[in-house]
Fold these 3 entries.
Entry 1:
Amino acid sequence: MSAFAIETVGLNFNFGSQTIVKDLSLQVPKGSIYGFLGPNGAGKTTTIKILLNLLQSPADQVFIFGKEINRNRIATLKRIGALVEQPAIYGHLTGKENLINRCILLGINKNKSTEMLALVGLTDAASKKAAQYSLGMKQRLGIALALVSDPELLLLDEPTNGLDPNGIIEVRNLMVELATKHQKTILVSSHLLAEIERTATHVGIINKGQLLFQGTINELHQLSKPMLEIEINDVEKASDLLINCGYQVAENDGKKLSIPYKNDKENAEINTLLVQNGFMISALYKQRKDLENLFLDITKNN
């Protein structure tokens, strides 16, 4: 049995002479929320369409739950739910009617629609026309439509795109609940790096069709060396003092100093040294690079 819900092995995909995906080896563990990160045009949507067999992959390059997708197309797709680009919603139907319609198409008991509305928090809006839904509600209805068949794997392409802060939080909370309480595996693509940081357990970073990083969110953070940030009244003099005392000042932006973080004991020694030399420290804190800066570091050499 494969430990991965999704595994691509050296996946290549071209549109004519243009390479869209190059030697892509994704490994999405079962039960994970896998953040698939990259700028617009990096190849994320194309990859998701390949995983859904909407675009045909070369033989023996795409495996879903250990089964090669081309040879096991129907059985594999039954295990996947997806929201790619915009949800396919009928605006003239209510939220519940949209779900009943999907149940009928899939030969599923119509009562499943009530369960799905509750799962995505739309029970109160069940009899409201979908055209009157907010963007966040439409995205949640789209996710409910993807979940009707109770898939084990959910592929979400930019699910928070165009949402207001409330909508983003709604979708984020729903993803975490689906993974933790309902044991779904979720691959979610995004170019919003801070978004992924809040939900993902694993991350893959793609640029120009190539995978630049893959691992747990903690492994990604370990690439980012934490810094000690010091906000102080005289940055230049404080910098000179620290350098003369053998400390490495990594950055001085005129407002604060950045020193590579070693341990809390050294932080206390630096604080004492500065205070004893008459400096006024307004803030001293440990800072990690956010994903945005990490992403720039990883992609700038590619």
Entry 2:
Amino acid sequence: MKEYWSCSKFADWLRGTPKPFSGTSEEWDAWEKKAKIKKFRYWLAEEGLDYLQNFIYWPANCIHRIRCYIDNRWVTKTHALTSNLKRGNWYDFDTRLLHALFDELVNFVEIELAWKLIICSEEDRKKYKTPWYHLSRWRNPEAGIAHLKWAADLKNDNDWADKNDPSYGQPTRQALAAQEMLQLYRWWKEERPKRPDPSDASGWRKYCEEKSNETKISDQGSKILNIYHKMEKEQEEEDTEMLVRLIKCRQGMWT
């Protein structure tokens, strides 16, 4: 269905309290508390209209559910975590875990958040050149980043907020989650790929190639090996830290 009747101008009139076009979780909580003061009118607009619309659109909704199932099952595969690791190679679970979660973060930003940005704005649809056929896997990194930047600036300063609350004027939960996601996304896409290979940066690869016929590691080789292990450990610890941060902000990853 193109539009929920409970979000229409008629519903606003019936409810007596206009529904916001968009807002943070705090803004929606404040609006709902205010709107529910008129209990019966709220029920008519929010539930009564839904019952009526669901009855009238039942055939179309059935077709829509079938289409969604096919898309979720075989196209977007929302039941699974996938990665961009090269197919056909062996990867240990720790590597698969890291790449699957961060590659899915990239998909979330570049596909889901990009789509979320343009569905409510004709201007953004033109700006980010949305394809007319609207494929579910349409990807646009710029649009996804634009959404995160918008969300990162949200403050608790809406009309329903309590100005005496200590959180008034402070970043919302959505803003804090967006700031963290943006940092993690940029780390995975921009910073991590530029990290030096410990084998090359430490000189260990070169040493092994030059001393391939030796059976014992020299003192110089031991020093190089220690540098290699140190660099490798630092990078592993960085990966773990970022992975933990990603898990901690997972509740903000929804559309």
Entry 3:
Amino acid sequence: MNQIIERTKQFSTQLESLNFSLDCYIYNPLQYAWAMHEAYLRRFVSQKTRTLLLGMNPGPFGMAQTGIPFGEVAAVRDYLRIEEPIKTPISSHPKRPILGLQTTRSEVSGKRLWALIAEHYSSSEAMVGELAVINYCPLVFVDRGPTGKNITPDKLVKVERLALEAVCDGYLGDVLAMVQPQYIVGVGKYAYQRATAAATRIEGVRIGEVLHPSPASPAANRGWASQARQQLTALGVW
């Protein structure tokens, strides 16, 4: 399904055309980690898929580094088994360099999510056609301050957030039309809201939500995997 590859390239170009007043570094892994992302799309998102899991935007040690949604390095290397060249952004925060698969820090959210998926599907090949993971917004917003903290899309100036959401909604709607999932599941509240908005274009798709695995969430630190498994089972996904 090469159309999803071409649509994603167009999506990246649309994102590059947006302007943001926020004083931050903006990383677009669809640019510098395109080879990784394209390989992921070809293997896991380029066919009809029963369930689509939707994240919000990349974490600094996950997709920002690998170009793969929730792309914790060990999961990408050992479970998904994708290894392609990764370039570096034109500019980046000194505390948030792009090291690709050489990244030594683990993305906790990605580690938790892919560990749960790997527990259910014995191999990444078994996942194909059953479940795929994408991010609603692939851009990373990094504060220019000394800590280089992540800024999530919902914190953007309203008019700029709405412009970003219009581009991301359009892409998500097209992806849904291409992969024709029975379920779309938002990972966290914001992703659930955006999934709900986009899924109105697709007849018969069921919409659900699972708890976000971020360690910033106290609830997620109290047995996230068991809670997420119960939510996915209750939805009928598993």
